Each structure stands twice: as structure tokens, then as C-alpha cells.
Amino acid sequence: MGEAKRVSLRLILLFLVASSCFYQLRASDDDKVFYESFDESFEGRWVVSEKNDYQGVWKHSKSEGHNDFGLLVSEKARKYAIVKELDEPVNLKDETIVLQFETRLQNGLECGGAYLKYLRPQHASWIAKEFDNESPYSIMFGPDKCGTTNKVHFIINHKNPKSGDYVEHHLKFPPSVSSDKLSHVYTAILKPDNELKILIDGEEKKRANFLSSEDFEPPLIPAKTIPDPDDKKPEDWDERAKIPDPHAKKPDDWDEDAPMEIEDEDAVKPEGWLDDEPDEIDDPDATKPEDWDDEEDGEWEAPKIDNPKCATAPGCGEWKRPKKRNPAYKGKWSAPLIDNPAYKGIWKPREIPNPNYFELDTPDFDAIAAVGIEIWTMQDGILFDNILIAKDEKVAATYRDTTWKPKFDVEKEKQKAEEAASSTDVLAGFQKKVFDLLYQVADIPFLSGHKQKILDVIDKAEKQPNLTIGILVSIVVGMFSILLKIIFGGKKPVKPEPEPEPEPEPEQEPTAEISKQEESSSGEKAEENEDNGAAAIAPRKRAQRQA
User: Fold this and answer.
1) What is its subcellular localisation (predicted)?
2) Residue 516, class by beta-carbon neighbours within 10 Å (0-12 exposed, 13-18 middle, 19+ buried)?
3) What pTM was computed for the model?
């Protein structure tokens, strides 16, 4: 009976889970406006541009390491253009719209784009196969990198209601493009409260307000005033802050013709200067080649060499006094500058009301009628996948978790493994070179007495790779010690340095107290000498006589 209850509970739970999943999928489908997985070939559904500039070949290809298909840029240094018209235009007003797609730069990206263009409704005669860079879009979004450019574009093409002109407004300080070769998902969330959020891999990288002049360049709302295009600077308008002093006069002693340098009259020709010797002479050892023809080759001349006499002399040839700066040199005279009494400042045209100014509560975006990719890239291997337009952020998050995240996790783990293997290969290569060198060292004749010890340590290092670095250090230190012993014969005993003899103290005048102490000491010594007997006195006297 208990088992039956457990089975019933399991069935109920399964039913609830299935119902929840069905509800989520149904909700996702309801909030999903457009989705392209590229699980099937794009041919017949997407239209490749037939314009002559676009020679790049699109391919339906698997992402490297996955069984998942995408739209592949297959050739380098080509322009590409492909477009998919939507069944119905997507309104960008009054509700949240989420734009999301994946890209994978399988060969990196040095110079090229990987962005999407969301086209506004085209003119009546437009056809998809004529899609090109002139086809008007409402939003451009995605990575672009070349030279100093490295950013995730977000550009809106907004119509000025006064002038009727469309203006491109670029997001300021956009996020950077990921430089690796992993799959990344880019998300733009447009909200009816004028907020924009840019996510990369589900993480918010940029938040902006469509109506803020700090977030878009140029701002969507134009300036209230503009410089008057018909205003002209008056002829008497003086913009010079400084002018030459009209009352200044050149001093009488100012010589404009004086040279900057003059000969140094105090200079004296060095002794030994060889005035009659040239710096170069004909090479006396040179001979005219046997095949030299004076008629065809001209008169033969010996090559020049440095005059050997000049090598030991201070100089050769005509001696000339060196130049020095002319103390009388002043250059071209000009009047000093003074404040311009007529200065009026830098002229600017007057401001007038901007005829194209308008106020805006919410952006008046054009609807999205098609999704296109129009790029010029120097790299191949760019893969586009899972292009989504939705009305709910949760829908985009669900697609990220189910389509992008599993691939990214696999690629990330593979990347870590490859990096670890690469570092291991580098270490292994280093170890092999060191071991080869050590085997050669072990065969050196004068180390024959230590050969077995060296081989034992090398063998231990080869069997325990994790300890290799420490063991290699030990080997190097050990071998260095052996070499020192062989070269210098081990440690030599260190001779103790002799202690310095104490310097004699300077003689001092005896004081009364010192004299009493000496007398007392002399008396005590005399008594000791008497007790020791005459035998002790005699040698001392002999020593004194010998001295």
C-alpha cells in the first residue's frame, strides 16, 4: 500500500513538472517574436545579396566541437550580406523588446565586424537580394574590431520629426569585444521607460538612457539653439589679443646683418699641423687591373686611403680658425607685443532657435522589418547562431541557458584543458632538455666518481614529475658543489689572526694617592721576595744584567 502511494506521488510530481515546462515553453513561444536556430539550412529562407561588392560565401556549418549548426563566414577578406525578412514588422514602441544573438570568432577577430542590422521597412521597390550597406536600418548591434576600434556597437537610426532626416546616434563608451574564440551571446534590452541594457553572456555591461545626452552621440534630442548659418563676422572685428607696439623703434646699435658666428681670433694653429699633407692619398699598393681598358673604362686612378701621416699629427690640410658665437649677433629686430586695445575676442556667430529642435518623451523608433548581416571582415570562421527577438527578458534568459550556456561550458573546459596541456608540454620539453644535458654531464670523465649519484638523482626526477623542479635545483646545487671541490680542492683551514699587541699607555704624573698605593704594593712584593729566598732573587738579577 505504501509503495502505491509513493508511485502516485511520483506521477503527480512528474505531471506538475511537465505542466510547468509546458507553460514556460508556451509562454516563451508567446513572447518570442522571431527566432533563428540555423538547425536547418538557411537557403530558401534567408536571401544572400546579389550586389557585386558582396562576394563572401555563407555556409551552413557546425560550430567547432559541437553538433550545433550556425551561419558561417567561410572566406577571408570579403564583404558579406544576407537578410531575412520578418513575417510582420516588430514595433519598438510601448513595450520591452529584446534583441539577442550568438557569435563565435573561431579564428579570432583582428579586423572585421560581427554585428547585426535590424532593418526598418524599406521602400516599395526594394527587394531582399539588393540588400547592401545603403539599406536603411533602425538598429545596428554587435561586435566590431579593427585598429583602434574595439567595441560592441549599439547605433539607433532615429528620424527627426521636424526635418524628416534620419540621424545615427551612437552609444557612448560601449563594452569591448571578447578576444577569445569561445561562443558569446549579445543581448540588447530596450524598455519603454527609455532604458537600454547591454548584456554579454547574460552579464550586464552597459546601462544607458535613450534621451540622455551623456549616453548617445549626438543626443536624440537636438540643442534648442544653433549658430546662425547666415551670420558673418564684421570686417572690423579684431581677434588679435596681442599686437606689435606701434611706438617701438629699433635701437641704433641693433645690427640685423651681423652673422650668428664669427671666426675665433684667439685660436692658434696647433703645433705639428701638416698644411701640405692631404687627408687622403692614393693607395701606393694598388695596381691597375690587367683587364682595365683605358679607352673603354677611362683613365685608371688608384683608390684613396687615409693619409698615415695625419694619424699622428693634430691635423692635415689648410688650417682654418674655428667658428664661435658672435656676441654682437641679435638677429632680425621686431617690435615687442602689447595688449591689443581693439581686441574683441574670438568671433562666434550668434545663436538662433534651432528650427529642427523637438521635445521627446520616448524615442520614435521605426519598426524592425528584417534582420540582416552586412559586414566586411579580414577573418573567416565567424559563426552566427540563435538570433532572437523577444518581448520578455526571461525568454532571452531561457534561450541563453538552453542554447548558449551548454556550449560555452564545454568550450571553457576544453580551453582550460588545452592551457593546462600547453603548460605541461612546455614543462615536459624543458625537463627533457635538462635531463639530456645532465646525462651528458654525468659522462664527463672528471665526474666519474660521482656519476652513479647523479644518475640516481636523475632517475628519481624522471619517475616523479611533480618533484622535478625541486630535484633539478638539488642536482644543480650538488653539481656546483662538486665542481667547486674539484677546482679548489675543498675547504682550506683558516689560520687564526694574531691578536694585536696592546699599545703602551701614556705615562702619567703620579699623584699622592697613587704613590701611596705603589709604596704599599712595593712593600708587599718585597716581603714576598724575602719569603721566596735568595734562589729566586738571583735569576732576576742575572736577567737584569743580561738585559
Assistant:
1) Endoplasmic reticulum membrane
2) exposed
3) 0.61
